[in-house]
Amino acid sequence: MCKMARVAAALIRVMFHVVAVAVPVKSLAGVAKVAFALINQRCLGYMDQAALGRSYTGTFCGDALVGAMAHSWRILVQGLTSLMFLCVHADEYVRPPPSPLVLVAHDKPASHPQQVHISVVGANNMRISWVTDDRKAPSVVEYGKSPGKYTTLATGEHTTYQYFFYKSGAIHHVTIGPLEPSTTYYYRCGRAGDEFSLRTPPATLPIEFVVIGDLGQTGWTASTLSHIGAADYDMLLLPGDLSYADTQQPLWDSFGRLVQPLASARPWMVTEGNHEIETLPVVEFAPFVAYNARWRMPYDAGDSPSGSNLYYSFDAAGGAAHVVMLGSYAPFEEGSEQRRWLERDLARVNRSRTPWLLVLLHAPWYNTNEAHQGEGDRMRRAMEKMLYDARVDVVFAGHVHAYERFARIYDNEADSRGPMYITIGDGGNREGLALRFIKDHKSSHLSLFQEASFGHGRLRIVNETSAVWSWHRNDDDHATVRDEVWLESLAAAKSALAKTARRHADEL
Which domain holds residue 300? Predict the structure, then answer.
């Protein structure tokens, strides 16, 4: 199929070359954009008028003819979009056959909320996000501490977006608070539909994070979510690749409905992966349109606003932990906005008050799997020293569909003052597992545990000095703990070294 697509693309290039001889356009891509825009504009115009019950041509026969052409164009574009997106990745590491998707339908009235998920905003607030098919539904949240008894009402805003012929429902975002820590609240969105409940994170240690990457919406995903929900936790961290919609926008809706039972009850803090980009050659939709509209994170809140939904940071457990979510697909080189922001953000972290410093990103900086070799190297070279100097404790990544835990590293060498690197891109995506690790890889001696299985991880920060990391493999009806390690905060280690140095100085 991909070979056919390449032949078709070659023929299209020849056609554009012929056209370019006669048409004064700067490039073949320019010809393609002009042609696509002309056809697409006419088709969208017809479909918008038809949705309003209006005639596009003024005659029945004209509308019938244009309608047939518009729907044929829609099917053609959607098919080519899927084919092109898949063929872009056709030469990547060959994976096992994909798992069938688990598609969750919405069978309630248009005004009823769906795809409900929550995220932290600052120290004491929470953002409630949801979608309604009714684009005029109100962006309000009623909430209180008892079921059915709502003592407070908060209002927010909503947005929509269009991608080819898909137009989203109303995507609502409402911030509620201030809220008390470690407290259960009951809430209802848009004055309609079901009641939900959430529990706010603790204001002090201990705190437990669930970490999953490359989630998708397959039977494997459903198993991972079931295992996560079987044990308590305070917050979920996801280092990219959420829905695997890959330009098929209804899959964003299905994904939101699939994760709603968990994502409506505990904060989900996410960053983008490559499957959130959703751009295509020629057409050039703005990247991250669906992701930014649906999964709004607190990039504009707190003491360190980043100005971009693709990277941000937040505090947890009353500031005992600082979590940095980096963007592997936003500019990160010297002089970039993300790098300047990261410098400012790390500089303001006082490790005497914040003993734990965590970083999440998508493309791993260290990786001995055959899949995605070297894709994180440029970002590592640009930012690794900053994380090392800040004494980051752990760096979590996704992208590679397997689990791998490394030693503490700096610049490809074991270093007790460097972060521990963990790849956890095994949430359940449709592409399957990356089964093969490279035995003689230059980083093999630094890789302490590796397994190509689906699962999830948990980081429980016990106190200012100690935390325990465990990786839970999906094993039939229960999650099996396959890897577990205790960590000491690098801030605590640094403090202990300083005390030892002072004691030796006093003795001298």
Answer: 203-495
Lookup: tokens for 354: 């914040």
Nearest to 237 by CA among 421, 397, 401, 433: 397
Q: For residues 192 and 231, state if they share a domain.
A: no
Burial environment of residue 498 by CB neighbours within 10 A (0 to 12, 13 to 18, 19 or more): exposed
If pLDDT is split at 50, 70 and 90, which confidence band does 279 have?
Answer: confident
Active site residue 275: no
Longest dimension (CA), the chain: 100
350 and 483 share a domain? yes
Number of domains present in the structure of the chain: 3
DSSP run (H or E) holding 207:
strand 207-211
pTM above 0.85, yes or no: no
Residue whose token pair is 């190509």:
452
Task: Give kind and range of the element (H or E) at residue 465.
Answer: none
Q: Are residues 47 and 193 in the same domain?
A: no
Last residue of a domain, one of 88, 123, 155: 88
Catalytic residue among 372, 399, 456, 472, which? 372
Cα 483 from Cα 424, distance rounded (Å): 12
- Model pLDDT for residues 435-490, shown as the tens digit of each residue: 999 999 999 999 999 999 999 999 999 999 999 999 999 876 778 899 999 999 99
What are the tens digits of pLDDT across the range 411-427?
Answer: 999 999 999 999 999 99
Q: SS3 letters for 259-299? A: HHHHHCCCCEEEECCHHHCCCCCCCCCCCCHHHHHHCCCCC
Nearest to 119 by CA among 200, 210, 182, 193: 200
User: What pLDDT, in 10s, does the model give residues 235-253?
Assistant: 999 999 999 999 999 999 9
User: For 132-195, what is the HEC assignment?
Assistant: ECCCCCCCEEEEECECCECCEEEECEEECCEECCEECCEEEEEEECCCCCCCEEEEEECCCCCE
The DSSP code for 202 is P
Listed in sequence order, the residues at least 6 apart from 477 whose beta carbon sits closer than 8 Å to its beta carbon are none
